[in-house]
Amino acid sequence: MAKIAYIGIPAHGHTNPTLPVVQELIARGHQVLYYNAESFRAKVEPTGVDFRPYAAALPSEREISEAMNEFINASLFMSSMGETLAPFVLDEMTREKPDLILYDSTSMAGYIAARTLGIPNICLLTHFVLNGSNLGFVPMARFFWSAIPHLPRLMGWKRRMKARYGAEIAGGITEYADLNIVFTSQAFHPKNTFIDDRFHFVGPSINPATRNSTELSDGREDSVGRPTQSGEGLIYISLGTINHLDNAFYHAAFEAFRDYPAQFVLSVGKNTDIAQLGDIPANFTVRSTVPQLEILQQADAFITHGGMNSVHEGFYYGVPLVVVPHQFEQLLNGKRVVETGAGVLIGDKAPYGRVTPDELRSALDSVLTDAKYRENAVRIGETLKAAGGYSRAADEIEAFIGIREPA
């Protein structure tokens, strides 16, 4: 059996899909070393991995999320984090000598260590494959314009990385591998001429068992569920693990749906003081956290920030979406939702996420009254399930290192 090291970043959206995969690899007899920030230990250790915290102090996930609002900020942030972590990860891999390195697509330290030491490696993508061709002219022009003031800093970083690791080792912020595992279906992924046979689409990695330790409904599960009143639907609202500090959005939702003929479950995150939200409508159940996978199995619609995990989970259970993006990557996801006819997109102009009560109500009306949205959500969900999920990802990993025949 193989010794496998995973090199991640401190972001829940990038971590959640890996947990069922590493748990499956361990069940098949492999040893897995899992590198991430110390704050992720409680989330990751229940899978059975050998958790290894990074030695360096890392930014919080909220700081990472805020940097993701603009491409240039994300580039600066990820380049800095990669430069900080690369020496530590290289030392660790030199000592541990794993048979294989798995690395998050934004974890430069992973590919630098693998290339330097000649260790077989696989890139894991929890987002769409991005290479510029599918971003559009306006976003790319905006990126290049915003990058001009930061060019000296970026060029200095590039020079340092090349001097330390060599030009053939230190590439860009995202470097793809000979095998790239993409956690979506090819049917849902936007068309992209850059994609070739190095990219294998395995669908979302969903296993409720890996979420139980971190997704609790704060001891009040009895009041979170499908309403018993005849004729009422259930609407789930969540802005994910980061963007939940948007009280203006919550107040807009309260105003939009105070008299709406449905029950609403709203997850606001652990950092939001529910008592400070003011007058909560009677048809709302508000919790710090809820078991999202359970709620989605009962929901009639999902109002979401459009993070890839949330989009996948909604479609996995055939739930149509109202996407309210709070950063650029979520905007791309929302546009793809619209293209597939499985939901609607609002709040899509910078600054993202700003919506009125009327916009919210109109969007929800649309996905509830037009059957095509649910039909398309179910259709996309079937493609996600058919892609194979975490078991298929483990198969691909084993095939890559010669333990099983390629699919």
Question: Describe it for me?
Answer:
This protein has 407 residues and is α/β, with parallel strands linked by helices. It has 2 domains: 3-203 and 388-400, Glycogen Phosphorylase B (Rossmann fold, 3-Layer(aba) Sandwich); 216-385, Rossmann fold, CATH 3.40.50. It has 15 helices and 13 strands. It has helices at residues 12-15, 18-27, 41-44, 61-67, 71-96, 108-117, 137-147, 151-165, 247-257, 292-296, 308-316, 328-339, 357-369, 371-386, 389-400, and strands spanning 3-7, 31-36, 50-53, 100-104, 121-125, 179-182, 199-201, 233-238, 262-267, 284-287, 301-304, 321-323, 343-345. A 7-stranded parallel beta sheet has the order 3-2-1-4-5-6-7, sandwiched between helices. Strands 10-9-8-11-12-13 form a 6-stranded parallel beta sheet, sandwiched between helices. Helix 11 (308-316) crosses helix 14 (371-386). The chain is globular, with a radius of gyration of 21 Å. The model is unreliable at 213-223 and 226-230 (pLDDT under 50).
The major beta sheet can be summarized as: 7 strands, parallel
Global morphology: globular
Could you tell me the CATH topology label of the largest domain. Answer: Rossmann fold
Number of domain modules: 2
| Major sheet: arrangement of strands | 3-2-1-4-5-6-7
Could you spell the SSE succession in H and E letters?
EHHEHEHHEHEHHEEEHEEHEHEHEHHH
Helix content: 40-55%
Task: Report the average pLDDT across residues.
Answer: 87
Q: How much strand?
A: 5-15%
CATH superfamily of the largest domain: Glycogen Phosphorylase B
Number of strands: 13
Helix vs. strand class = alpha/beta
Low-confidence stretches: 213-223, 226-230
Terminus-to-terminus distance = 19 Å
